[in-house]
Amino acid sequence: MAEKPFKHGGDIRSLATRAGRQEGEILDFSANINPLGLPDSVRPIVSRSLSNIGHYPDPRCRELTAAFSEKWGITTDEVLFGNGSEEILYALPRIAGRERALIPVPAYTDYGAACEAAGLAVIKLLLREDEDFAVDLHRIENELRGNELVFLGQPANPTGLAVDTKGIIDLAQVKRDTIFVVDEAFADFVDDLPRLISNRPANVLVTGSFTKFYAMPGLRLGFVVASPPIIETIRDILPPWSVNTLAQAVGTALLKENKYAARTRSVVAGEREKLMAAMSAIPGLYPYPGRANYLLVRIDKGGIKASGLAEKLLKDGIAIRVCNNYDGLDDRFFRVAVRSAGENDILVSGLRAVLAGAAPPERPRRTAAIAKDGKKPAVMFQGTGSNAGKSILTAALCRILLQDGYTVAPFKSQNMSLNSYVTADGGEMGRAQVVQAQACRLDPDVRMNPILLKPNSDTGSQVIVLGKPVANMDVNTYIDYKAEVFKTAQKAYDELASEVDVLVLEGAGSPAEVNLKHHDIVNMAMARYAASPVLLVGDIDRGGVFASFVGTMEVLAEWERQLIAGFVVNRFRGQKDLLVPAMEYTRLHTGLPTFGVVPYLANLGLPEEDSVTFKALASQKPTDTTKEIDIAVIDLPHISNFTDLDSLRLEPDVGLRIVRSVGDLGTPDAVILPGSKNVIGDISHLTGNGFVEAIRTLAERGRTEIIGVCGGLQILGREVADPYGIESAAKSTLRGLGLLPVTTTLMEEKSLKATGAHHTASGLPLRGYEIHHGQTRGDGLSPTIVRDDGETIGYATEDGLVWGTYLHGVFDADEFRRWFVDRLRTRRGLQPLGKVSASYDIEPALDRLADMVRESLDIAAIYRLMGLK
Length: 869
Prior knowledge:
Elements: H1 12-19, E1 27-28, H2 42-49, H3 62-72, E2 79-82, H4 85-95, E3 100-105, H5 109-117, E4 121-126, H6 137-143, E5 148-153, H7 165-174, E6 179-183, E7 204-209, E8 222-225, H8 228-237, H9 245-254, H10 258-280, E9 285-287, E10 294-299, H11 306-315, E11 318-319, E12 321-322, E13 333-337, H12 341-355, E14 378-383, H13 390-403, E15 408-411, E16 414-416, E17 420-422, E18 428-430, H14 431-439, E19 451-455, E20 460-465, E21 468-474, H15 475-497, E22 502-506, H16 524-530, E23 534-539, H17 545-555, H18 558-563, E24 564-572, H19 580-590, E25 594-599, H20 611-618, E26 629-634, E27 639-640, E28 654-659, E29 670-673, E30 675-676, H21 679-688, H22 691-701, E31 705-709, H23 711-716, E32 719-721, E33 733-735, E34 742-759, E35 765-778, E36 783-787, E37 792-796, E38 802-805, H24 814-828, H25 842-856, H26 859-866
Parallel strand pairs: 1-11, 3-4, 3-5, 5-6, 6-7, 14-22, 14-23, 15-22, 16-19, 23-24, 24-25, 26-28, 26-29, 29-31, 31-38, 32-34
Antiparallel strand pairs: 2-8, 7-8, 9-10, 10-13, 12-13, 17-18, 19-20, 20-21, 27-30, 32-33, 34-35, 34-36, 36-37, 37-38
Helix pairs in contact: 2-9, 3-9, 4-5, 4-8, 10-12, 13-14, 13-25, 17-19
């Protein structure tokens, strides 16, 4: 037997089947649910209450009833809860002792159905179309005989029009033998609407629902407020345990949820007005001026029916509620819920196209949660924590997309890193996005990383926006600034998106940082803006990856969960088949798939995003002791641009050690003091931990070459002055190591240059960039590195054993790096190799990375997520 058509909206399964789409791809305007989605508090309430389902629920809903009574100022015996307000509506005609029901129509169809099922004669009072179907209480009064039930929606469904509350009270007091059922299922959406729950005559019953306002139609929770005798009569005919344990727990908590309620009313009012204005501007449509979270619309264009319009929209995954089964309405009428701004835009575009005789604009098959009109295909990697591998996977997918013929760009709205880079036009950005740009074969562009935070203390950072320093800010100041700077990031994203086919976004840290989520501008907030599905990456090498996937999902808000498309297991060592049970468990728990397992990729030959990996090396003992040349790098607390050293790792005869304590320093062939974001603080660290004397001793012995890069150059000098408080609140001056006769003053203006240079002793060309506040002067020193414009950016002692430079990337040039290492070999009495033995070129590494990740991930499925063919 064929199924009967469902007479309500929201039948998402049938809608998806008719549309030929997945349920998650349907934009459902047919059900009037809060566009904000489930309140954040609901999931933890359900989680902690789940253990209680081993017992029968409280049949009298005592905690819920007490909370409701306290909120509305009524007694506990005046309210009864049911399995949705529908259950209660069907019970009321059976207990009222009335012969007939009066229903002003159009109205919710189940008012009449419930009364007919109870054997009542139903009188339908047709409201006037030329009066926008407004309820006329005087007409109702004239129809009343005193033995009826009257059903009133407050506001009405489907019109969304409110009824004068005082008029209802006055009418009820005049017609005391009539029972008035006032349905306030949508009243919570209407600001300043006088409620009858706590101010009603004895012959007024008020019904309501948690379903629509709190976006939980699947949980089912409704109520009726009436005099105690009526409540007890209704209770006698309802089934026992009508309200389940979870619904009771959630309802009790939501009665105290004030911020969500206020925000809902504000958002719905604003979006409703915008949606109404947009539809009013479409020739042939007349939206009625409702006050709820939905709009009734009439088609005034001949030859077009609401049912035909609905079918055309549904093919593109847009569902509306045709209203021809409402009494008093015909196939000219449809109803639409008020959803989010982007979703409403899609509806309006579809309506405009169909009414103009065209097909709706083709919409990518993304989930409804991330549908947004006009956004370029995108995908975002977020992590279960820092250093999960997001940056590398972003670079890999960028290169894969490039290989497959797409123009692609990376994007990370905010990066916190001391490892930065200077673009050709003098802008500063995160080094990770530089690598990702190279994967796309694009020049690095500050729009790819519009906000860069460079920590300069435990609680503060230098804030760089679109490549230029804005200010030093502490945490609270920056939080206040975020809303403003996020607009800059959004603009940068839109500009980039206009120039490429697809974007690959990277998040930061974890979206599950509950203390940060409310001011997030880099994870879910950015994913929502970009209409980007999210792949959650976990590092299995750390352990607990599947618990991290599940745990992350548990603390996400409902709208955030809907953005997550699935998971990526990263850095796996072992047999992939062993993970199948865990991946299946994760799928069953979250409903989401794992898109692949990426193996542990050692020695990628790509720069690291931040100092996590670099710092980890400091606690490891060298595993290869056969290297002939020993170079020690001092691990500064505020180390920056540590990727200056990546190229040295490639040399076959170089052992690069990260040194954290003086006891591990030894007598290396070279000591490198790397860049520093806080030279003042790092000088104090070196002094307090004995490094100053140890390095001076090495210099006096004359067998160790000592090099300083940028901040390291400043530390090697006689003193560093900070008169403007750039790095020290005390505006102090500190003595350096005194190994180079130079002095440095930290200036307010930052020097940012991508530059070419040459090394005077070898005559070899160099290429790199400068990022520094310092102005350094040498006393009688010969320049060792000179910029192409003639400016000295490096100094050395006469014997060349101590030297420093402001040029980041000084070791990247293959010929100079080999010259430098051969000089160390000669000093050790070893034969120089005399020719380049390693090429610092990440192009082959990017291709190798892309090949390995392509084999590991379901790229076809990821392309479908993005809406790519």
